[in-house]
Amino acid sequence: KKQQKMAEFLVYNRVSISDIENIVVWNEGIKERVKKIAASLNVTIPTISFEEGPRWHYYTNFMNNGRKSCSPGPKETNQAFKNALTKIHSRTQKISYEFNSLDELITTLRTNISNINYTNELVGLHSENALHRETVAEHTLTVISNCAINKYYLRLNNRSKIIVELAAFLHDIGKGPKSRWPDGTQKVD
């Protein structure tokens, strides 16, 4: 059951309207606006749903008397993104990097996954996860192999392929270091 609630994915450039099963809106007025926009774009839209009266949120902010959603809207999400970029930019001005470029990093990882500390910590690390019979490093290499034959990956330009491959190399680094796990086996939350 838990696995059904979990997902790992990357969205490249956009999500197609055909990938959406349901649009949730706050009221009938917004529903009509969505319909008008769709009609003006000559797009068939999925089901539009909303609840009248007091609305139940799946993620309720109880620090605000339970009257506000913890799920931010597009303006809040955009502002949080801009704030994060500003903070990252201010910190990166003071950092020296181990690799001069992403190309150098990916070449190092392709040569041997244990060539950098973060991924070396995955080598020999076993997982309690019944879905993973491999070590975490072996699983990482399987993910990379699966990306390389994926039809969406194959359509990407070379730069985007490198970024996806780096994401695959690094997607489980939070499971290390090995020293975190007394018996050398990563526990499943």
UniProtKB/TrEMBL annotation:
Any single GO molecular-function term of the entry would be:
nucleotidyltransferase activity
- Domain (DarT) spans 1-58
> Matching Gene3D superfamilies, A to Z?
Hypothetical protein af1432
SUPFAM superfamilies tied to this protein? HD-domain/PDEase-like (SSF109604)
Q: Kindly give the CDD domains that the UniProt entry links to this protein.
A: HDc
- For this UniProt record, give its keywords in alphabetical order, as a comma-separated list: DNA-binding, Glycosyltransferase, Nucleotidyltransferase, Toxin-antitoxin system, Transferase
- Domain of life, per the record? Bacteria
The record, for Pfam families, names: DarT
The record's similarity note reads: Belongs to the DarT ADP-ribosyltransferase family.
The protein's name is DarT domain-containing protein
Q: Which organism is it from?
A: Klebsiella michiganensis
